Amino acid sequence: MEKEQEKNIEAQTKGFLYYLKKLLTWERVTGIATIITLIVAIIAIVPESETEILKKEIRQKITIVEKDFNPEELIQENDSSIYVKYLVEFQQKVLEFCTLWQIMDNPRPYVDYSYLNKEEIDSLIAIDMRRVDRIDKVWEEVNQINKNIIDYTSKIGTGNYPFLSLSKMTLMGNYQEQKENLEEKTLKVFLPKLNKYANSNGKEKEEYLESALKELDVFKNSPEYYRVDNISLEYWIETNKLLKVWKRDVLKSEREARNNMIDM
User: What angle do CA 140, 238, 154 make, to 5 degrees?
Assistant: First the structure.
């Protein structure tokens, strides 16, 4: 009996292999390869969304920041200069901004977390909202440090601050305003849905949660959220280069200011 079963299995295997060989003729293999090549080509020519392009550019700029911003080296170079302290603070804040951005750069959509219980959902959302808020605050802090540098250097008479284009500075402000408007609009839609989720049961509860989380995904994938980050990193990278080039003149002015104080 066992031998008959083995023969049947062997026959079935041979039959399958014969069918497979017949199916995968060279013409069919060539045809399949052509289809795959066409699919890959079609995918390649489909344009990326503005959001994906922005995120890719931001990641590239973060790589530049992580390579070029070295606050520890600046401290070791001259820890008595007020200008250097401002420059160190500037670099530290930009690096903090990059770290927070990378943490938030999660490709997984929020709606995928709809299986979590209420406490876990609340914790997830609260943590991410605090991070978004912190990113906005760090953005403001970086720009305040730039203002502090301008104010300080004008007092010690170092000449004109090496401004970048005013158009780029204006864009930063406009894009930040767009982002804040987007945040406000999202919360106005998201919070009522989340409250309905908290106060409902059964299938309706699941639907409210999924709908609420989809609002966060729309927010997270909106180009308005990323435009300010992209232009700001570009501006900060260029600012860092100028501040380092200008450092020698400022240090000289600082020494002269100290000597004048001693002479008095």
Answer: 70
> Which residue do the tokens 């060989």 mark?
21
Q: What is the dihedral of CA 31, 33, 39, 42, to 10 degrees?
A: -90
Pick the range with the lowest mean pLDDT from 97-101, 118-122, 179-183, 232-236. 118-122
Q: Identify the residue whose tokens are 């770290």.
A: 99
pTM exceeds 0.85, yes or no: no
Q: What residue ranges do the domains of the chain occupy?
A: 2-43, 48-263
The C-alpha atoms of residue 15 and residue 8 are separated, in whole angstroms, by 10
Q: What is the pLDDT of residues 85-135, one digit of tens each?
A: 999 999 999 999 999 999 999 878 999 998 888 889 889 889 998 998 999
Residues 6+ apart with CB under 8 A from 239: 90, 146, 164
249: CB partners within 8 A, 6+ apart:
158, 159
Q: Which residues of 59-77 are buried (b: 16+ CB within 10 A; e: fewer)?
A: eebbeebeeebebeebeee
